[in-house]
């Protein structure tokens, strides 16, 4: 179940939140926390 969640999360990030990687890569672009919270909330609703 955890593996499925992680695979789904990675796919979701690549497809719907490509800017998330950019935010993580550079602290100057802003905090990834609000984006991460939104992503996790959306994915957890599926489980």
Features:
hydrolase activity; Putative H(+)-transporting two-sector ATPase; 47 residues; EC 3.6.3.14
Model description:
- The protein has 47 residues and is an all-alpha fold.
- The chain has one domain (2-44).
- Helices cover 72% and strands 0% of the residues.
- α1 crosses α3.
- It is globular.
- It is an enzyme of class 3 (hydrolase).
- It comes from Rosa chinensis (China rose).
Produce a short descriptive summary.
By secondary structure, the chain is mainly α.
Encode the helix/strand succession as letters: HHH
The total domain count is 1
Would you report the number of β strands?
0
- Using only CA atoms, what is the Rg? 11 Å
Count of individual helical segments = 3
| Helix content range | over 70%
What is the rounded distance between the termini?
A: 9 Å
Q: Estimate the global geometry from the Cα principal axes.
A: globular
């Amino acid at each position: 179940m955890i593996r499925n969640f992680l695979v789904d999360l990675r796919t979701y990030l690549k497809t719907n939140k490509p800017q998330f990687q950019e935010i993580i890569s550079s602290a100057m672009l802003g905090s990834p926390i609000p984006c991460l919270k939104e992503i996790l909330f959306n994915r957890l609703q599926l489980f």
